[in-house]
């Protein structure tokens, strides 16, 4: 066991004894004392030793503290070095902090360095660096240019381009200028001037072609720096891209369009200048200018004249080169249409008819815009029928005269004009046509009962040209003929109630309309009806305004509305509590189904409570409860009384009213008056407590009253019965409060207490103190009463125990004594206590000062020490100031590395106290880690990275991701506000190589960038391979279920779906089963042709495309398989008595493809196992004889699964082996005989239970007349048209018994 809670530095002896039920043994002790202290070891090795800088003769090393200190503080680090090729290590120095500057080395030599940590025990194992070569420091090149150049410069064509840059580095770097991957050579107008510190690229008389991104590459042995400077040269735009498209030409105008110029000259195109001229002339005429549209309609042309059009683009630099069109003649390109077909007439009425015709065979090259129709009396003058062209191939001609004959002709029209007239139609004569009406619309049975049926319908769409005179309804009883119901006359309305139906008889109905011609076509109601009452149990739904709770004010009406749905109409009962409500003077009960209403006029407070609406009929009952709250003013306050009466005040208190008026009490109004004065004075009008202090005048009598107020107003007042006299009662004062010892010295005790809450009615109070030494009597500490609430007992004897007590005195008497506990008089030694004045962690920004202050207590004066992360070295930025009751810590110019735990320790002779403060210095985040590029496609990729190891002390707000093409090395920002540590980069150019860099950003700024490895935008994936051949799992005559496995090769991308195809066995073409891809690997294919054979194959698809098809499955015919059903499910005993058992089961999960038509229940007595049968299976004689008796082999011993079978079995002492043929023959005969016997035994004794009940169709059956003492087995089988299925058997035999708790 482990002994815990030992005191460090104390020596201990241990002993142990054994104990059992008879007692404890003698103890055995340790031979020597053991001192409680942590075991000490050498510290662990320093971590992560590496050089941070190197020069010709100097090296700077840094490392981290060891993981363990060995139980003792680390006192320093021993630094050593070794020249390459030497075996001995030279000692350099011992330092106290994890860094060192080593000097005096030789240039050009290689050194190794190692560091060991040291504590009180000794040195640790060393941590060694890699070899370091002392050589001149290399500084990578730096390029500085004007900020305007980085943003890009814009110059005019013909001016000078000047790109200066300053470069620094050790050794001096060299500069190289390039554009579009080619180095710029100074020649002609191009000049490059470079020295050790700067370089300038100049281009005189620049051209538009000089625009681009100029790459400056500065390099030296330490590295390379690349900078891109964008230059844009402005010039007039190029000519628009041709040719000029002539979209439409007429004799008056032409419509043209063109494409914008490929080069806009470096600034947006502000408009186009369009001009035209006749082909035979040289003079251009203006058409349009200033518009940026690339489509224009040129009007005011002369018919038959040939024109040429030119277009020039314009920007802020001027007008560019022209684009001319081909010569175009201003004329139509089509003719007038041919004549329409011969008109024909239809739908003739007394004053109108419809004229129809066919389209012309020739439209003249232009779309037909309409048709003009003309009419005339036979042999008369033609008159136009329509003023505007008709778009359709028929028109309704109105305004004709009955009995006149009319002829018609038609003209077609397009843009070119009208066609010739069509052939003249045959003469047509308008006349009235009256027919029987059409059938009524949507006849249906709206409602029915055992005697009546309500029919409704809509009037016919066609009345046959004569008003509908009425309707005839016919009825057909099941098996009978149609009979007219309304023989007395026609039904005028579109609804009728058929009466006199016979209950439980089935009827059909049909309706016919009648006009002056006769009876129209009948229309039958789609459904038949059986005459019986509809039974619907009541359902109650309350109005939204009183669904659960209703609130009204006193005097207002209470309206509770409910909607009751039931057939037949239910009985309605309204109740409040146990009382049934009936119609009275203020109460009105309304019943107009489905609406029921309770109305109470001029509500009183007594009307609040729960109201119950109850509805019941033969089908059931329902009820709803509504809580009604009647708002009123509150009632009388209770138990009004006055207490603590003095000459200038008293306390008035009361209790809440019994009835708050239905809403919360908001406040109370308290008033007072003298008995001789009738006017009440206000004490408080907004009191929320049930007690108030009233100011009084000494010697006067007062009466008080109070009332409660809620949102309805103030309630009735309640008054005190007897007046209260304002005088001071003088009583004994209360006891002093919080009597305590605040300080103890060598011969004194300092006592303090607090004035009592109750002075007894007299302000003149004093205090008496007494002390007692041990068991002696109490002795006063002073002669007269004292008025202060403190006292110093300065005549105490050192190292003696005292008790002290105090009491309050006034004119009314003395209070009870208040005592202290035992106080030992001695000089006090107080352990140090620190109170760090810091709530949580201290957060400062980098560069600010860190200030921590701590309160200090302790006797004698403690010594204070500040330490951060166990560092003991001096820091010139740190200053500590310590006083008698405080200690202040100040660190100036804070750094991110100053983040950590600052420990303050106060120590004196009484002990020590340790506190700590957490400081977080905020700075920009460090670099992100492990930048990875994945999911590379032709135009996208995914860039992911790990969070910075140092987030700068605050949460990283976002990330900035930039990209550049390696051939251009121009960085562009892709996203500046990423909140995740990954980004899906899109819009990449296929085949280009890219580099990405990421910077973390927090509220302090942006951290350093980290670049990814170059990646090329191209696809990494292929189409998926073919899946396995599909299988058909379920077959029907019109549908099949096809399943398949995924392909072994998904092409590198996850499968997005599948295409399932099918074909008939003798067909050649494969047909897709769906228009879209299938997400699952299973599909039910429907709409198959019965008895046809089908084959299926499947294709897989991913983002790359569709893969090769699988091998087709075998041909399968579409037909329904029918077989015997499966066993019923959930077979169990659901009830039992002493003489019967009730069994229950569920339908079989598989019905064999045909409906279940019945069940058969069987039972038998539980068979008892015969001992001789069991023995026969265990002895060797049970094996059938395949050889003579002397060769019979005993039954082999059963081996556990997994063990090897014996090569040969032996019998008794002879150990004779059987031959394999004899053994196989004997085993086969035995197995066959045993299986047959087992089958017969399994079927033995079963008898059918449901013999007299016919076919059992329910899933429950009771077997009566059973013996309580007999165990029974039961089984049930299902039957369909094929036959009986496999039975389901109870898990164990049961006996009939009474079920308790039934």
From TrEMBL:
Domain Fibronectin type-III: residue ranges: 1-39, 45-137, 240-336, 339-438, 439-534, 636-728, 735-828, 927-1022, 1026-1121
Residue stretches making up the Ig-like domain: 141-232, 832-920
Keywords of the record: Immunoglobulin domain, Repeat
Record field: compositional bias (Basic and acidic residues): 1187-1206
The species this protein was found in: Hucho hucho
Region feature Disordered, mapped onto this chain: 1181-1224
Pfam families noted in UniProt: fn3 (PF00041), I-set (PF07679)
Extent of Acidic residues compositional bias: 1213-1224
Domain of life: Eukaryota
Protein name, per record: Titin-like
Gene3D superfamilies, per the entry: Immunoglobulins
């Amino acid at each position: 066991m482990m002994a815990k809670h030992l005191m460090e530095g104390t020596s201990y002896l241990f002993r142990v004894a054994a104990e059992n039920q008879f007692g404890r043994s003698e103890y055995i002790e340790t031979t020597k004392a053991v001192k409680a202290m942590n075991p000490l070891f050498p510290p662990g090795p320093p971590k992560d030793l590496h050089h941070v800088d190197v020069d010709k003769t100097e090296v700077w090393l840094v490392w981290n503290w060891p993981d363990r200190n060995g139980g003792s503080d680390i006192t320093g680090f021993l630094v050593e070095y070794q020249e390459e090729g030497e075996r001995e290590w030279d000692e350099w120095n011992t330092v106290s902090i994890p860094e060192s500057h080593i000097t005096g080395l030789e240039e050009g030599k290689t050194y190794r360095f190692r560091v060991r940590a040291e504590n009180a025990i000794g040195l640790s194992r060393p941590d060694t660096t890699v070899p370091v070569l002392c050589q001149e420091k290399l500084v990578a090149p730096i390029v500085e240019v004007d900020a305007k150049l980085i943003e890009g410069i814009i110059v005019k064509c013909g001016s000078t381009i000047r790109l200066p840059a300053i470069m620094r580095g050790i050794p001096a770097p060299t500069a190289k200028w390039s554009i579009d991957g080619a180095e710029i050579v100074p020649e002609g107008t191009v000049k490059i001037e470079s020295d050790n510190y700067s370089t300038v690229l100049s281009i005189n008389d620049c051209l538009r072609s000089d625009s681009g991104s100029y790459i400056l590459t500065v390099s030296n042995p330490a590295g390379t720096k690349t900078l891109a400077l964008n230059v844009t040269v402005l010039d007039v735009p190029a000519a628009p891209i041709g040719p000029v498209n002539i979209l439409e030409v007429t004799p008056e105008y032409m419509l043209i369009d063109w494409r914008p110029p490929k080069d806009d000259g470096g600034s947006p195109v502000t408009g186009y200048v369009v001009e035209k001229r006749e082909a035979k002339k040289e003079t251009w005429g203006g058409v349009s200018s200033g518009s940026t549209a690339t489509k224009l309609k040129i009007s005011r042309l002369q018919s038959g004249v040939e024109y040429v059009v030119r277009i020039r683009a314009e920007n802020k630099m001027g007008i560019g080169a022209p684009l001319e069109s081909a010569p175009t003649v201003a004329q139509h390109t089509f003719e007038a249409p041919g004549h329409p077909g011969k008109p024909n007439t239809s739908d003739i009425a007394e004053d109108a008819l419809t004229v129809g015709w066919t389209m012309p065979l020739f439209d003249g090259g232009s779309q037909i815009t309409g048709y003009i129709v003309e009419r005339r009396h036979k042999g008369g003058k033609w008159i136009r029928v329509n003023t505007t062209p008709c778009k359709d191939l028929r028109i309704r001609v109105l305004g004709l005269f009955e009995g006149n004959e009319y002829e018609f002709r038609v003209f077609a029209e397009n843009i070119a004009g009208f066609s010739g007239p069509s052939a003249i139609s045959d003469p047509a004569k308008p006349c009235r046509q009256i027919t029987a009406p059409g059938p009524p619309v949507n006849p249906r049975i709206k409602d029915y009962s055992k005697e009546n049926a309500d029919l409704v319908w809509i009037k016919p769409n066609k009345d046959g040209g004569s008003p509908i005179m009425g309707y005839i309804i016919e009825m057909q009883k099941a098996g009978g003929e149609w009979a007219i119901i309304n023989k007395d006359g026609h039904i005028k309305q579109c609804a009728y109630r058929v009466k006199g139906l016979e209950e439980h008889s089935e009827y059909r109905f049909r309706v016919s309309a009648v006009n002056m011609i006769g009876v129209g076509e009948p229309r039958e109601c789609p459904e038949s009806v059986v005459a019986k009452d509809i039974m619907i149990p009541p359902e109650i739904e309350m109005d939204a305004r009183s669904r659960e709770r209703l609130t009204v004010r006193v005097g207002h009406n209470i309206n509770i509305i409910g909607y009751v749905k039931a057939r037949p109409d239910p009985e309605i009962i309204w109740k409040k509590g146990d009382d049934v409500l009936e119609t009275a003077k203020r109460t009105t009960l309304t019943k107009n189904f489905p609406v029921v209403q309770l109305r109470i006029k001029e509500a009183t407070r007594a009307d609040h409570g729960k109201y119950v609406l109850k509805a019941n009929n033969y089908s059931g009952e329902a009820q709803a409860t509504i809580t009604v709250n009647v708002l009123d003013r509150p009632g009388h306050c209770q138990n009004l009384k006055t207490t603590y009466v003095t000459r200038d005040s008293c306390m008035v208190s009361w209790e809440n009213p019994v009835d708050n008026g239905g809403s919360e009490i908001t406040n109370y109004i308290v008033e007072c008056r003298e008995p001789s004065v009738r006017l009440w004075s206000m004490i408080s009008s907004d009191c929320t407590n049930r007690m108030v202090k009233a100011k009084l005048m000494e010697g006067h009598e007062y009466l008080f009253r109070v009332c409660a107020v809620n949102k309805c107003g103030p309630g009735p007042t309640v008054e005190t019965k007897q007046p209260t006299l304002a005088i001071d009662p003088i009583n004994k004062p209360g006891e002093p409060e919080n009597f305590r010892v605040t300080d103890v010295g060598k011969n004194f005790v300092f006592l303090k207490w607090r004035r009592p809450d109750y002075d007894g009615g007299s302000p003149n109070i004093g205090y008496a103190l007494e002390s007692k030494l041990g068991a002696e009597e109490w002795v006063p500490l002073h002669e007269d009463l004292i008025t202060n609430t403190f006292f110093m007992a300065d005549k105490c004897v050192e190292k003696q125990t005292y008790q002290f007590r105090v009491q309050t005195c006034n004119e009314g008497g003395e209070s009870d004594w208040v005592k202290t506990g035992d106080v030992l008089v001695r000089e006090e030694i107080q352990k140090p206590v620190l109170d760090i004045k810091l709530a949580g962690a201290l957060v400062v920004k980098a560069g600010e000062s860190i200030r921590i202050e701590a309160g200090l207590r302790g006797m004698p004066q403690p010594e204070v020490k500040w330490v951060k992360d166990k560092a003991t070295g001096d820091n010139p930025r740190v200053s500590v100031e310590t006083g008698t009751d405080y200690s202040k810590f100040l660190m100036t110019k804070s750094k991110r590395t100053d983040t950590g735990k600052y420990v303050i320790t106060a120590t004196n002779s009484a002990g020590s106290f340790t506190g700590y403060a957490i400081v977080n210095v905020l700075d920009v985040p460090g670099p992100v880690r492990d930048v990875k590029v994945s999911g590379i496609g032709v135009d996208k990729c995914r860039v992911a990275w790990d969070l910075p190891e140092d987030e700068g002390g605050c949460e990283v707000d976002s990330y900035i991701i930039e990209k550049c093409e390696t051939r251009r090395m121009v960085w562009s920002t892709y996203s500046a506000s990423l909140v995740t540590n990954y980004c899906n980069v899109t819009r990449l150019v296929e085949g280009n190589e890219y580099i990405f860099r990421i910077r973390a950003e927090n509220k302090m700024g942006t951290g350093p960038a980290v670049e990814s490895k170059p990646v090329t935008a191209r696809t990494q994936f292929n189409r998926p391979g073919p899946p396995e051949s599909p299988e058909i799992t379920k077959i029907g005559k019109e549908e099949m279920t096809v399943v398949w496995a995924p392909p072994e090769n998904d092409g590198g991308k996850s499968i997005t779906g599948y295409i399932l195809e099918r074909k008939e066995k003798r067909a050649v073409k494969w047909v897709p089963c769906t228009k879209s891809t299938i997400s699952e690997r299973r599909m039910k294919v429907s709409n198959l042709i019965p008895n046809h054979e089908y084959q299926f194959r499947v294709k897989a698809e991913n983002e790359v495309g569709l893969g090769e098809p699988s091998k087709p499955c075998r041909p399968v015919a579409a037909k329904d398989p029918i077989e015997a059903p499966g066993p019923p499910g959930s077979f169990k005993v659901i009830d039992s008595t002493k003489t019967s058992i009730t069994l229950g089961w569920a339908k079989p999960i598989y019905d064999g493809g045909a409906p279940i038509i019945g069940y058969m229940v069987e039972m038998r007595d539980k068979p008892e196992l015969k001992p001789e049968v069991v023995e026969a299976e265990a002895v060797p004689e049970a094996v059938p004889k395949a050889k003579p008796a002397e060769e019979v082999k005993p039954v082999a011993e059963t081996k556990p699964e997994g063990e090897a079978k014996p090569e040969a079995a032996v019998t008794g002492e002879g150990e004779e082996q059987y031959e394999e043929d004899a053994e196989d023959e004997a085993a086969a005969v035995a197995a066959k005989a045993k299986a047959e016997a087992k089958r017969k035994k399994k079927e033995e004794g079963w008898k059918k239970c449901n013999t007299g009940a016919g076919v059992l169709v329910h899933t429950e059956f009771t077997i009566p007349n059973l013996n309580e003492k007999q165990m029974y087995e039961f089984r049930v089988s299902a039957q369909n048209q094929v036959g009986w299925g496999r039975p389901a058997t109870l898990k164990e035999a049961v006996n009939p018994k009474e079920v308790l708790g039934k």
